[in-house]
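Collaborator request, handled under Task 6.
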Amino acid sequence: MYESKTLSRRHTPVITVQKSGAISINRAGYTALGEPEHVLLLRDADENLIAIQAADADEVHAQVVRLLNPARGSGPVVVPASGFVREAGIDTSVARRWPASYDNCHPFVQQSPLWEEVQARPRA
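C-alpha coordinates returned to the collaborator:
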Protein backbone atom coordinates (compact mmCIF):
# COMPACT_ATOMS: atom_id res chain seq x y z
CA MET A 1 0.00 0.00 0.00
CA TYR A 2 1.29 3.46 -0.90
CA GLU A 3 1.81 5.74 2.09
CA SER A 4 1.95 9.45 1.34
CA LYS A 5 4.88 11.20 3.03
CA THR A 6 3.14 14.52 2.40
CA LEU A 7 0.26 13.63 4.71
CA SER A 8 2.53 12.82 7.62
CA ARG A 9 4.47 16.08 7.12
CA ARG A 10 1.28 18.08 7.49
CA HIS A 11 1.01 17.01 11.12
CA THR A 12 4.70 16.84 12.00
CA PRO A 13 6.81 20.00 12.38
CA VAL A 14 9.38 20.03 9.58
CA ILE A 15 12.15 22.53 8.85
CA THR A 16 13.70 22.91 5.39
CA VAL A 17 16.94 24.72 4.62
CA GLN A 18 16.57 25.80 1.02
CA LYS A 19 19.39 26.15 -1.51
CA SER A 20 19.06 29.93 -1.16
CA GLY A 21 19.78 29.65 2.56
CA ALA A 22 16.22 30.55 3.54
CA ILE A 23 14.59 28.40 6.22
CA SER A 24 11.04 27.25 5.60
CA ILE A 25 8.76 25.92 8.30
CA ASN A 26 5.73 23.80 7.48
CA ARG A 27 2.33 24.77 8.87
CA ALA A 28 2.53 22.28 11.77
CA GLY A 29 5.83 23.81 12.91
CA TYR A 30 4.62 27.37 12.44
CA THR A 31 1.48 26.62 14.44
CA ALA A 32 3.59 25.03 17.21
CA LEU A 33 5.61 28.26 17.41
CA GLY A 34 2.41 30.24 17.92
CA GLU A 35 2.31 31.68 14.38
CA PRO A 36 4.67 34.58 15.17
CA GLU A 37 5.36 37.44 12.76
CA HIS A 38 9.04 37.46 13.82
CA VAL A 39 11.45 34.78 15.03
CA LEU A 40 14.94 34.51 16.45
CA LEU A 41 17.38 32.08 14.86
CA LEU A 42 19.53 30.50 17.55
CA ARG A 43 22.47 28.14 17.41
CA ASP A 44 24.19 25.85 19.88
CA ALA A 45 27.47 25.06 18.10
CA ASP A 46 28.59 22.57 20.78
CA GLU A 47 25.46 20.44 20.31
CA ASN A 48 25.13 21.07 16.54
CA LEU A 49 21.61 22.36 17.03
CA ILE A 50 19.68 25.31 15.72
CA ALA A 51 16.48 26.69 17.17
CA ILE A 52 13.70 28.89 15.93
CA GLN A 53 12.01 30.91 18.65
CA ALA A 54 9.05 33.30 18.46
CA ALA A 55 10.14 36.93 18.93
CA ASP A 56 8.76 40.44 19.19
CA ALA A 57 9.28 42.77 16.24
CA ASP A 58 11.37 45.14 18.36
CA GLU A 59 13.97 42.49 19.31
CA VAL A 60 17.33 43.42 17.78
CA HIS A 61 17.97 40.19 15.86
CA ALA A 62 14.34 39.30 15.04
CA GLN A 63 13.75 38.00 11.52
CA VAL A 64 10.50 38.57 9.62
CA VAL A 65 8.42 35.50 8.85
CA ARG A 66 6.79 35.51 5.40
CA LEU A 67 3.95 33.35 4.13
CA LEU A 68 4.91 31.48 0.98
CA ASN A 69 1.36 31.89 -0.31
CA PRO A 70 -0.05 35.12 1.19
CA ALA A 71 -3.16 34.99 -1.01
CA ARG A 72 -4.18 31.71 0.61
CA GLY A 73 -3.13 32.78 4.09
CA SER A 74 -1.95 29.29 5.00
CA GLY A 75 0.75 26.80 4.17
CA PRO A 76 4.45 26.99 4.95
CA VAL A 77 6.35 30.11 5.94
CA VAL A 78 9.87 31.21 5.10
CA VAL A 79 12.51 33.08 7.09
CA PRO A 80 15.38 34.80 5.24
CA ALA A 81 18.42 33.17 6.84
CA SER A 82 21.29 32.93 4.35
CA GLY A 83 23.80 34.63 6.66
CA PHE A 84 22.77 32.49 9.63
CA VAL A 85 22.89 29.29 7.57
CA ARG A 86 26.31 30.16 6.16
CA GLU A 87 27.70 31.01 9.62
CA ALA A 88 26.30 27.75 11.03
CA GLY A 89 28.07 25.81 8.27
CA ILE A 90 24.92 24.19 6.90
CA ASP A 91 25.44 22.83 3.39
CA THR A 92 23.05 24.45 0.92
CA SER A 93 24.15 22.67 -2.26
CA VAL A 94 20.74 20.98 -2.13
CA ALA A 95 17.63 21.71 -0.07
CA ARG A 96 17.53 19.65 3.11
CA ARG A 97 14.58 18.77 5.33
CA TRP A 98 14.55 17.63 8.95
CA PRO A 99 11.77 16.74 11.36
CA ALA A 100 11.74 19.23 14.21
CA SER A 101 11.31 18.40 17.86
CA TYR A 102 10.62 20.32 21.02
CA ASP A 103 12.97 20.75 23.94
CA ASN A 104 11.38 22.83 26.66
CA CYS A 105 14.21 22.24 29.14
CA HIS A 106 17.27 23.10 27.06
CA PRO A 107 19.18 26.02 28.64
CA PHE A 108 20.00 27.53 25.26
CA VAL A 109 16.61 29.26 25.06
CA GLN A 110 14.01 30.25 27.60
CA GLN A 111 10.76 29.69 25.70
CA SER A 112 9.48 26.56 23.99
CA PRO A 113 11.66 26.43 20.88
CA LEU A 114 11.50 24.29 17.81
CA TRP A 115 14.79 22.35 17.58
CA GLU A 116 16.36 20.41 14.78
CA GLU A 117 19.63 18.59 14.50
CA VAL A 118 21.43 20.02 11.50
CA GLN A 119 23.85 17.11 11.23
CA ALA A 120 21.19 14.40 11.32
CA ARG A 121 20.45 12.54 8.10
CA PRO A 122 17.79 14.59 6.28
CA ARG A 123 14.50 13.10 5.27
CA ALA A 124 13.74 13.03 1.55
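The cover message to the collaborator said: "The two ends are 19 Å apart (CA to CA). Confidence is low (pLDDT under 50) at residues 105-124. Please let us know whether this matches your experimental observations."
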